[in-house]
Amino acid sequence: MKVQKRSVFISLLGSLFHYYAFSVYAFSAVILAPIFFHTESDELTRVLGLVTFSITFLLKPIGSIIFGHIGDKYGRKAALTQSLVAITIATTCIGLIPSYAQIGWASSALLLLCLLVQGLCVGGQYTGAIIYIQEHMKQENAALGCGIVAAIGIFGTLLGTATSYFFDHAKGIEGWEWRLPFLLSAIMGIFLYALMKTMKETPVFLANKAPEKRNNVPLVDVIRNYKRPLFSAVFISSIPVSMFYLATVYIPNFYYFDRAAGNYDIDPLGLACLTQILCIILSPTLGIFSDKFGRETQLRLTSILLIISPIFIFYYMTVFSAFAAVMMGVVFFSFCSSLYAGPAPAYLSQSFPVVGRYSGMGLGIAIGEGLFGGLSPIICVGLEQFFESTIAPAYFVMGLGALSLLGILLARKPFPDSQQKKSG
After folding, report:
1. Which of 332-362 are b and which e, b meaning 16 or more Cβ less than 10 Å from the residue's Cβ?
2. Distance (Å, rounded) from C-alpha 342 to C-alpha 271?
3. pLDDT: is 139 or 190 the higher one?
4. How far apart are CA 16 and CA 170, in angstroms?
5. 97: Cβ contacts below 8 Å, ≥ 6 apart
6. What is the rounded average pLDDT for all residues in the chain?
């Protein structure tokens, strides 16, 4: 039991590190954009910074396929360890890239390459961490376990954001101090790699790994036989990440950017840190609630809330452009994200077989997060400009609520037996 708990703890540290490494650039993307890009317009430069961050999410499905295959064929531990090595190298390299002023567009290209590797790794690691923890826990506490994984990931995001906040404000982006959070990842990654080598494989995977299927491709079996849970995973998983990035990226960086004065009414990184603290507290708490009162019920009610409420939320923020209005929007979207963070993956995982769970669930989550989650700030900016209205992003949120409700309806249909063998 001590070995099992130690392995779970190490996997949580790995999840924390992945999100630290990813968020060091993600939440400073708009601020650091002038280092790696140059355009005639300051706002276009800021948008380019946000675009590079969003593009990484498009790689998450590919990452889920790569690491999902490794996780289903060779074990959860192997996938988590290899992902750690790759993201450590990519994050460290970002801190070594010369600026645009020094090497021109090669700086932009090198940054994008490193971010793409980060996207691949995060796409494979999140599902692996969820499954690794869940296969070590009792099913009746699954949403709590998934909520803890989400909270740990957000805590890693908070560390990355806070570290960036500190160094970005220490000397500004004109100095070299902004590079330190990226370079620190090398030390952290090496230490974690040594710990991960001592982790044990999950007993559920070991009990269900069939030697006769060793040459099969688990994802192919999932696509053939588990289409409905795959679509369900895409639709349902679009909610938590989309709501999280609306609260931490879109509203702080764009909704209250004073275009006339050319500055922020509220510090975006500071507000993002406060929002992440809120999600860290709410995710496990609401996971416990859903374990007791029903995961599907919680997901269904949240979907309906997202369909009927956004118009009023965005209208209030538009009419009352003050700190209280900003906080109301941030709290609302943080709460909705946390309502999904624990029960959604716990609800979805039982729809897939043990050998194929990493690939199927990972691909579904990565597509949902890639198409909607990471792109949500860009989509909201586009809707705002297309309709010439700051209320327009509400349509996007309402659409996600409807998609999620469809995913829940799909998941309620009977599926082929996905029960794992008893591990004895």
Report:
1. bbbbbbbbbbbbbbbbbbbbbbbbbbbbbbb
2. 23
3. 190
4. 25
5. 36, 107, 110, 111, 114
6. 81
Check residue 90 and give its pLDDT.
92
Sequence-ordered list of residues with C-beta below 8 angstroms from that of 376, at least 6 positions apart, any chain: 241, 242, 245, 246, 250, 396
pLDDT of residue 62: 86
CATH of domain 2-411: 1.20.1250.20
Structure tokens given for 329: 């929007």
DSSP class of residue 140? G
Q: Tell me how far CA of residue 8 lies from CA of 3, 120, 171, 198, 201, in angstroms.
A: 9, 23, 39, 11, 10
Q: What letter does residue 300 receive in the DSSP assignment?
A: H
The CA-CA-CA angle for residues 399, 403, 409, to 5°, reads 145
Q: What is residue 418's DSSP assignment? A: -
Domain boundaries, the chain: 2-411
Give the dihedral sign, CA 214/216/222/225. Answer: negative
Distance, CA of 110 to CA of 93 (rounded, Å): 9
Query: 258 has which bridge partners?
Result: 263
Rounded CA-CA distance 333/325 in Å is: 13
| Residues 236-244, mean pLDDT to the nearest whole number | 91
Listed as own residue / partner, the contacts of 172-176 with beta carbons closer than 8 Å and 24 or more positions apart are: 173/31, 173/32, 173/34, 173/35
Structure tokens at 388: 């010439």
SS3 content of the chain, % helix, strand, coil (to 5): 80, 0, 20
- Secondary structure of 210-267 in the HEC alphabet? CHHHCCCCHHHHHHHHCHHHHHHHHHHCHHHHHHHHHHHHHHHHHHCEECCCCEECCC
Residue 208: closest CA among 360, 354, 43: 354
Quickly list DSSP for 63-110.
Answer: HHHHHHHHHHHT-HHHHHHHHHHHHHHHHHHHTTPPPHHHHTHHHHHH
> Would the pLDDT of 172 be above 60?
no
Element (H, E) at 371: none
